[in-house]
Amino acid sequence: MADLQQQLPDDEDLQLSLFPDPPPFYKHFTTGNLARLQKIEKEATNGDDNTNESITVSKPFAAKLSAEQILALPTELRYLIPPEPPADDEDFHVFEVISKAKGTDVFMKDMEFIAKSLEAEDVLPGWTYEQLYPSPDATTQLTSKAASLDRQNYLFRFARSIVLSYISLLGIVAVDPVSEQKNEKLKDILTMVSNMHALINEYRPHQARQTLIWKMEEQVKRKKEEIEGVRKAGGKVREVLEEFARSTGSLVQGTGVEKKDDVVLPEQDRTGDAQRLMWEAMDDILGP
Prior knowledge:
Layout: H1 2-7, H2 31-46, H3 53-58, H4 67-72, H5 75-78, E1 91-94, E2 97-100, H6 106-120, H7 151-175, H8 180-201, H9 204-247, E3 258-260, E4 263-265, H10 267-286
Antiparallel strand pairs: 1-2, 3-4
Helix pairs in contact: 7-8, 9-10
Protein name: Mediator of RNA polymerase II transcription subunit 7
Family: Belongs to the Mediator complex subunit 7 family.
GO molecular function: transcription coregulator activity
């Protein structure tokens, strides 16, 4: 700790933060700048004879400005105009990973990486992933047999095939540990394991839906418990208030004194008794 203090410069204005500061252009998102941009858009729309009111309303914010008009805007206003969304087949980077709006086949890229890694390590050279189960193509209807694939059945079949291939591999190794059939059998096992992995990945949308349903059910359950707790607390409050009203029923209205066991108490003692009863009621509600 002392070494760290010695390394830091002696500057009172130096501030250390666990989280980075937000980008500076967030200060441009103000009500005044939005009003300025809307005014510029309105002027641009009024200057276009071919633009009618229905088209103007239906277009997104700042979408009716041309590229030249956007570049001519001040810097603080250009930040308020969001960029155009990428096309389905257009690549963009997310944390240095190339992605597409319609999604990327990450599984096939992983299989290619595994094949290259095995080739580099001279382990199972020549292995490539081969899909052993049917999959619907882009023109297949959802009601077809290919779209309604029985994934569970294929998972069971792959599991049985892997067990049989493993038993066969043990027999090959027992006879000849350096046999070429050993590598072929290992490639078959790796291919079937990869196919099982691909089938399991196709359950991820179902898993996401079920997780969301479970989360929402938990929220509903928690809200119901909170409502029931509020109702019980309200019932306790009503009971305490009723008891408090009964205990103070002996107050003599308009006299400023309380008659208790034929003894007239002054107003100060009566107020103290009322406050004590109120604190006891609060203890009953809130608990120890």
